[in-house]
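Input sequence (81 aa), recorded before submission:
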Amino acid sequence: MNEANMTCTCGYKTGTCIATSDCEKHYAKKPCYQPKGSMCMACVHAGDDCSDFHWSEMPVYQKKGNVIIVICKKFLKQELT
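Predicted structure, token format:
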């Protein structure tokens, strides 16, 4: 999973942001919650569809315009083998 394809609740392109700029461009007034990408890449759920998570209830990591990067409460670190 890469940051350019993170799940977003803004609804743009069926819930997925192409990039942060797409959220800002198409939904300037509606908040767009996006999980912190580096956490997703290290998570056991990395290949799962996490779009049903309640992103607006998760701790905020960073805000940029209407894009709100959150820390996922369901994050589980992958074990290194």
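Checked by second reader. Residues 1-7, 11-16 have pLDDT under 50 and may be disordered.
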